[in-house]
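The pair is quoted verbatim underneath.

:::
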Amino acid sequence: MKTVIFDLDGTLADTSGDLIAAANACFEALGHGAMLDMAADQATAFAGGRAMLRLGFERLGVSDLEARIDEQFQTFIGYYGASIDRHTRVYDGAVQAVQRLLDADYRVGICTNKPEGLAEELMQRLGMRDMFGALIGADTLPVRKPDPAPYVETVHRAGGNVARSVLIGDTVTDRETARAAGVPSVLVTFGPTGRDVAGLQPEALLDHYDDLFGVVEGLLA
């Protein structure tokens, strides 16, 4: 069965606003201002909570960087979980593109490095969770992307075949995951790094979700 597996942050939805707001809430609670910028630091937001905390503490010039990140990480998770969909938006055409795949008897799933509970909550709030046959998060298995195991497990849980699957993502992590799993990758160009993702040499680029079906059909023909 043909299968399409999606990354979540930066691929299906722009979650950067809520991620950055949660990181800034940590710094504000510590008596600092907002250390991250909503526009300029989008790429760091898509790298995850620890990456944002690291950037903020680096800007503060702290010496015990990793310890401070560890101290604040669960606080960050709490802030983020409380306001997980305030700024987040699904990318234009994503819902329709996923529905077209389903109508053509594709299997679809989500493989993300967001903690599973948060990913489940967000997809429910966005009204899209029921569209996907499987969701694997960063803590579902003992390993996470770019290890191929989460991807393979997502395909299997969705009822698909790895040999006839493709990964849709937006970062080098997704590219490396697809390469490790031996499947093609499609990287979106509407994230914060734009068409620079072409330098990662994916099998295809996606400029808009209107084009997804044709791109996937070409790769899995």
Q: What stands out?
A: The chain has a mean pLDDT of 96. The chain has two domains: 3-14+89-220, 16-82. Residues 16-82 form one domain.
